[in-house]
Amino acid sequence: MQANRAAVGGSSEYAIEMLNITKRFPGIVANDNITLRLKKGEIHALLGENGAGKSTLMSVLFGLYQPEEGVIKKDGREVKINDPNDANALGIGMVHQHFKLVEIFSVLDNIILGVEPNTAGFLKKNEAREKVVALSEKYGLRIDPDAKIADITVGMQQRTEILKMLYRDNEILIFDEPTAVLTPQEIDELMQIMRNLAAEGKSILFISHKLNEILSVADRCTVLRKGKYIGTVDIPSTTKEELSRMMVGRDVEFVVPKKEATPGEVLFKAENISVASKAHKGLAVKNVSFEVRAGEIVCIAGIDGNGQTELVYGITGLEPLESGKLFMAGRDKNGNDIPLSEITHLPIRKRSKLGMSHIPEDRHKHGLVLDYSLEYNFILQTYFEPRFTSGAGFLKSKSIREYADKLIEQFDVRSGQGAITTARSMSGGNQQKAIIAREVDKRPKLLVAVQPARGLDVGAIEGVHRRLIEQRDAGNAVLLISLELDEVMNLSDRILVMYEGEIVGHPDPKTTTVQELGLYMAGAKRE
């Protein structure tokens, strides 16, 4: 299958050649003399650590950035791509990591936006609808053309982005971290869609740092590290270990070793809690009870959309509970331990000061102020402490800078201008590292970690998993919410499975299988 796909159009013919591309930003060379060649009809993966320059290189190809050096060729002919309109005219389309959709528009309106079919200025929507429906059936992209973007799942939004490319008859398809926000089932479906597109003769560039996905779907893979080209390999003749070594520059442990847990006292307890749904009038979390002890990692597993998000909102104070109670043991301002006490109605700041940390699901919405500098993002929850603010209420710039520099070094947060870098300008993975640095450094009694490894490369995931295990081994409580089955199996001391707002199972991570876990998650099995 792979050999046939790569051969479409002749193995010596390249759909796209990016030759000696260099792109600079203040304080950083994002792409340093990189050459990438995409064959016709192949799926070509672009692999690299967070901040390696993958998205920048693809943004150059799509006309969002102009390179300082280098040339781009399409079908052997040199082209100039000044903006995305030029890219579309050349048949190049891109699905961005953070989707570019208008939330109040319908799926159909988003797909045809900018290329609306019309006669004498009158919109011909029926024609567009027929083409969109035909494309969605041809490629297995099931969508409702009349649904509003704001009301559909992330997976459906991604299908809308793919149909936007196909509607414009794009031949070169760029997918930037397409699986970062998808469930395991949606990922499998996307991989099949990509195979179907390549079989049709489309040429695909696929940015990822998930090695299993690259090995399952790509024909070749180009690896970048710190903005430099490391090499291109044929997927059938490489291994996961070799790819990770090229990517990180060292051997990576895919399963971080951890000793047996020795749980102590209960540090957090949820008692019959219910939380309202944002999507409908009912409850998203229904009468859920559980506890987390000192020195253990309790993982809440489940398919996305089964109440995990609302459960976390309730625990962290982002949303009020409809019913039930929350209890937490913490510490006072002098660092003295406080026994288990009710926190149901405590505001977020008081929960934070008591010793609760939260790595949120949506890093842009709840994790960072994107237009603040990195150093100010690090002190969002602690700026009022005497170490950062004088008695007169002025921020201590020197102390804040020193603190930020310490976290940047400890957690390997890569940014063009160090502590003064604007959070918005950083790669998604480095934004995530910054949040993890801030929340872990607070030395929390309870760490609520939601999808902590989302969007991170294998080297960074290894680091995050070590941090979570360190928290556990230091006698703190870790509540992990994850959609990644490997993460659930490797990190958990106890697993709770959520389905339709309820805890339906407590499988033992030592004895359960991925298959059994999948049955609980799909609602096919209950305790």
Description:
The chain is an alpha/beta fold and 527 residues long. The chain has 4 domains: 2-91 and 171-248, Rossmann fold, CATH 3.40.50.300; 105-169, no CATH class; 256-355 and 444-527, 3-Layer(aba) Sandwich (Rossmann fold); 363-441, no CATH class. The protein has 18 helices and 22 strands. The strands form 5 sheets. Strands 6-9-10-3-11-12 form a 6-stranded mixed sheet, with helices on both faces. Helix 16 links the parallel strand 19 and strand 20 (477-482). Mean pLDDT is 88; it is low at 1-12.
Relative helix content: 25-40%
Q: Specify the structural class.
A: alpha/beta
Number of helices: 18
Point out poorly predicted stretches: 1-12
- Corresponding CATH architecture of the largest domain: 3-Layer(aba) Sandwich
Per DSSP, what share of the residues sits in E-state strands of 2 or more residues?
25-35%
Q: What's the CATH C level of the largest domain?
A: Alpha Beta
Oligomer designation: single chain
Shape: globular
Q: Please, what is the average pLDDT? A: 88
Largest pleated sheet: 6 strands, mixed
Which strand order does the major sheet show? 6-9-10-3-11-12
Number of strands: 22
CATH topology of the largest domain: Rossmann fold
